[in-house]
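Bug #77: duplicate submission created two jobs. Keeping one. Sequence:
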Amino acid sequence: MSKIKYLFGTLFIFIFTQTAMAQEISYKVDNGSFNYKHAVYLTPSQELTLKFDVKNTKSIRWYQIIPDTSKFYKNANHPWEKNPYKWVGFGKIEYKKVEIDAFKNRREVKLTTAILQENQPENNAFYNPNFGSFWFEVEATLENGTKVKSKGLKNMTYRGLSTKVFRVSYMLSDDYIGYLTTFFNVPGIFGSIAYQSKNYIGVDCADVLMATSAVMNKKKLKDYNVAMLVAKLKKEATLTITNGNPNKRLQWNQDFQRGDFIAVKYNKNGRYAHIGMLYKDENNNGILDKKDTIINAGPTALRITTLEEGGFNGTVAILDNVDMQ
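Kept job's structure:
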């Protein structure tokens, strides 16, 4: 009997150990060593290897978890709704789990932009396969039938997807602009809270700019709204934009810098209501005009828009972003 108990105990310990070891996805960047952190930041030029280190498997299935960023989510009423800005409770974000066929039955895989492009959701213009954040889940079935899973879609909280679900964040560069691009593919949530913003659950226009600074500098997120940012940061210029056309001639890299913020109030005597980051002189004429682009969120997910698209028509302040970097 003691021998049977010993064998049973050994088998139990073996299975338990396999399960415990397999709770997380590990990763390595380029030729580095494998790490078990919940998130990794890198540029698309770097090679990323993922591993689900489980022995004696019968099958392994990898999934990408994709939030539906085409929808407007809210924790508070939008400005155009009745009782604007009133807290209405945490908005429920919708996610989809898509199997990655190329990774099937493989413990170790290499993630590429080609894989991320294949999983492009239909009718969702806000999905960016080149930059931004991507979430993954793995399920392994052992030879004895035991299932071993990483944290995944089942690990939801009232604020959104668990922060323990493995995330890959691709960035354009390792500066402020680059870290801002890691927030592509994160849902837009009007009235998002600091926890949601810093943990890539959901963002609003000012929140995403503050979260970028907090993540880059590894500091606590300061919960500033648009008006507070306008009051805090140095004004480089004030102007009026109509149909995307500024009423002043402002030069890139002289009157303002790439990466500076642009805030707008839609009513002359109202408050500043929207903010984004000046991104690119698209026609290379050196002058701020309707063809130039801005990265901004709210009420949609983070996206690139032009001045011509109208999101910044009104009374505008351009703000020096140096204090955020």
